Automatic annotation (TrEMBL):
This is PH domain-containing protein. SUPFAM superfamilies: PH domain-like. InterPro entries: Mug56/Spo71, Mug56/Spo71_PH, PH_domain, PH_SPO71, Spo7_2_N. One of its GO terms (biological process) is protein localization to prospore membrane. Residues 113-124 have a biased composition (Low complexity). Residues 462-674 form the PH domain. It holds the Pfam family PH_SPO71.
Amino acid sequence: MTSNLSPDSYTARRLEHATPSHLHLTSRRTFIGPIPDGWLKSHRKSWYRSYLPVGGRSGSSSHKPSFTAAAAAPSVDGEDGEEAVETVLEPRPVSEREGLAVPASTGGAPRLSSQSADPSSTTSLLHSRRGGSVAAEPEQSIQKRTTTARVRFDDVSRLQIRARASRLAARGLGRNSKMKDGELMKMDKMLVRIDITQQSLGEEFDERLSQGVEAKTMDKWREFMIVCRKQSEDDTVGVLQLYKTRVIAANMEEQDKMKKRPKAEIILSPHRARVNLYSALDKTLCIWTRENSRTTIYYLRASSGAVAVEWFTFLTSLLGWRRPETLQISVPDLSVTLRIDDPFSTPEAAQIMSDAAAGDDTALMKAASHEAGVAKAIIARCVDMLRFSPEWADVMKTWSEGNVMGLAWKRYDRLEWVHGAVEQKMYGTSAMQRTHDLQLRPKDHYPLKTKCRGETEPIQEPSPVEGFLIRLTSQQGHDRRLGKMLFKRLYFTTQDHFLLFLRPSDAKPPPPPKMQPKANGNIPSSDEIAKSVPLKLDIDPYPLQDDHVSWLGHNAVPPKELTQLDEAASTEAQRNTDMMLAADGFIDLCDIAKVRKMRKGATPADQNIDNGDAVDFDIQIDPTDSLTDDGSTTEVDEDRTFELLMKNDLVIRLQAYNKSAAQLWMSRLYALVTYWSARAKADMDLYKSVRAQNLAVLNIDERTEATVGSFAYKWEVQQSYASSTLYNMCGITSCRTIHLSGLLFRKPRRHTTFTRCHVILASGHLLIYQDTLRKRSGKKLVHIHHERIAAIDLQGCYIYSGLLTENDLLYQNRTFDSNTPGHNALPRVYLEDGWTSTDEDAMTTFVIWHSKSKAWFKSSHFVDDVKASQKSAAKDAKSGLEGKFETKLKRVSQLGATGRSVVFKARSRAERDHWVLGIGNEIEKLSGREAEVRVVQAGKS
C-alpha cells in the first residue's frame, strides 16, 4: 500500500518487487550496546549530526527535535539477557537520482488478485489447454499512467529516445524521412576488440561457431565511443564509427571541421556486414565484414547487458530484421504458453513515436514513459488471460495470494529478470527471442527459512546483530605475546553468514532512541548520549501490522512524517552498505563449531592470565586507528568474555561490555550459526538438484553439461529447468546488503598465477578477502578470520566471459585424459561442500576490465547549457573563487587506451553464470548516469 508515497521513493521501489513481510524480515537488525564513551568522545558530533534533519544541522535551536528522552541502559538478567527497546530511525537527506526522469506507476509491479475485473476491457481469450498455447487479440486500451512535470533532456538522452522513436515509427525498418544522412542515430561508450581471419564466416557467427575459427587479434580491448550515423547510399543503411574522443559532431558537416577523425568505420549494409549476439551470457556483440580475402571481426562490449541488447535490436533492425508481431510467453508453473499479438503497439503509440521522432521534448517524455510501461502492460494482459480462462480460474485464485509477478528471459538453467534498465527499454530486448524464452514467473526472493538436520519444521532466519566488542586473539589464533594476552577493539556486524569486523573509527552505530536536543542547539554530551542507548536496540524500518507496513496502512501517518520514515529506511540501508565496504575482514559463521562461555585453560596463555578488568571497554579510540593490536594484558574478565570454537580447533575470544551483553551476543550468534550452516547446505543442494534434473531431462552427462549450458541453441534446451529461487530477485533489487558471495580464483594481472579467495559483491564493489594464510615458504597456516586484500570499484568497468577470455588465461589446463580425448580439464571435487566440476577453463572464466589512463573532459552541461554556466559562475563568485576556474572539468577514462584486466575463475560454469549476471547487474546500476560525451551542434564549439 504505497498510494501516499512518491513512486520514486525508496520504499515504493522496494515494494514494487517484494511483499511487506519480506521488507520487514530483510531490514530488521539488533544492536547490542552500549556505545563506548571513548568512541563517543571522538565521533559524537559527526555521528549525531548525520541523523538530524537538513534544517537541524546549522546549529539553530528552531529545528524539530530528532531525539526524545529515553531511560538509561538497563541491567538485564536472565538466561538470554534480552530486553528489547525499539528505536525510531531518523531521516537523512537522500540525493536525487541522476539521469532521465521517467514516470512510474504507484501501484508497482502487477500482483495477482482474486477479485474479478471487467473482461471487456482486457485481452480476449481464444484458446487454452495445458501445455498448449493461448492466443490473444491486440489490446485496444492500456491503463493510463501518471504524468510528471516536463523534463529537460540533454543531447545524449534526446538523441537516444528520438532515434528509437524514429525506428518504431517506421515499424522497425530503421528508416525515417525526418532523419537526414549524416545525423546521429545512436551513440554509446563501449569496449572493442578487433580480430581478423582468412576464413569466411558466412551468415552466422557466435561463441559456439567461433571454436572452429582461427583468428588473430589485431587490436586488444580498448574503450571507444561508438557512433551510428544514418547513411543511405546504394544498399547502405548506416555507418558505425569508432571515436577516441568524447566530442562528437552532430552531423557529417560538423565532423569535417573536427580535429579528431574516427579510428575506424564499419559500413552497415545487408550485403557487406553481419551482426549477432556473440555471447548470450554477457551480451557481447560481434560485427563481421568481408573485404577481399580477409574477414574483420569487431567484438563490442557495452557497459551493461541492457545497453548491449538494445544495440543488438537496433543493428539487426537496420540490416533488415523485422520484429515479430507476436510474443510467446510461457508460464512454467502452469505448463502453459501464451501468445500475445502485437504486444508493443497501442492506438496512441504511433502518434507519440512520430512526434518524438520530430524532436519534441513533450513527445520524447511520453515516448520514454510509454516504453517504461510496456513490461507491466504485458504482465497485466497475461494475468487477465489466465484469470478469465475457465481452466485456470481456480488455480489463479490460489496463486494470487501474495505473489508479485514478473517477466524473465530463460536460457538453459539461467534466468534474467526484466528489471531496471531492461524494463525501461523493453523494445530493445525483442531480439532476445532468438536465444531466450520469455517467461511469466512469481518474483521469488532468497529464502528466509530452512530446515536443520533432524528437524521437521523449518526455522526462520534470525535477526542480524552488531555492536562493539574486544577481540582477544590475532588472525592466526595466537592469544599471547611474551605471556600476555593480545586485544583489539573492533565493531562487529553480521551480513548473511559473515561476521564482519571493522575498526571503531569506521563504525556507524544506529541512532539512539529519540532524545531532546539542548535549548541552545548544542549536541548532547557523551554521557547523555551513552545513557540514552539501551543494552539491546531493535532496528526495524518496516514494522508489520496485519501483513502490511504499519506506517503505510489505512491509518497512515502524515505526508511529512511518511517522507521522513521512508528516508530513514533508506539511510539505514546505506548505513549497512557503508560498514560492509569499510570492513577489514570477516569470520565465516559456517566455520564456527560452538559458541560458548570462556573456558579457562582453552589456550596456552591462560596459565599466565588472571581474572580482572584490565581491558577498558570505554577507553578513548585513537583517531588514527590501525589494524595492529591495541595492546596486551595479563587480566581478563571471565564473566563478560565468550568464545567461538572454530572447526579447525582454534578459539576466538571476544569480550563484551558486561555479563548481560555477553549473554546476548552468545544467544544471537548461536542462532545465526545454526541457521546459516543449514542455509549454506540447502543452497548447495539446490545447485546440485537443478543440475541433476537437467542432466536427466536432456539425457546428458556432467562433462557435456558445461558445453550445453554455454553453447546450445535455444531449441536444444527448451525443456531444461531453471530455478527462480537460485536466480532470485534479492540481489537485483538490493533487498540485502550483499548481492553475491563465494569462492573464486583470482589473477590480478595476466602474467600472474591464480590464487583462491573469498569474494563479496555489494553495492557496486567487488570485495576480495584472502582464503588461506601462508608463511613465506608457502606453508599453510590455520587462521580464524579472512582479511580484506583488495577491492574493485565497478564504476566504469566492463565484464566479459567465455572464449573471449582465452587471451587472458595464457596458461590453460593442458592435461590429457585418455578416456575423453579433446577435453583438457580433469574432474574436480571441492571438499568443503561436495560440489563437482569437469568444465573447461574458458567456460568458468570471466574478466573485469577497467581503464588505467585518465583524461580531463569538459562536460556539455557547462558548454551547451548557458543557464547552468551562469549558476556555476555565480556560485564561484559567492565563494570567492571567481576567476580561478574558467571551465568545469571532470576526470574520465582515456578513450583508445589499453586497460587492466583482472581475471577470475569460478568453480564451475553454473557458478560463473551467477557471477557474470550479478556483476553485470551492479555495473548496470552504476551506468545510468550522465553520459561523458559532448555533441557539437551547428554554431557551437
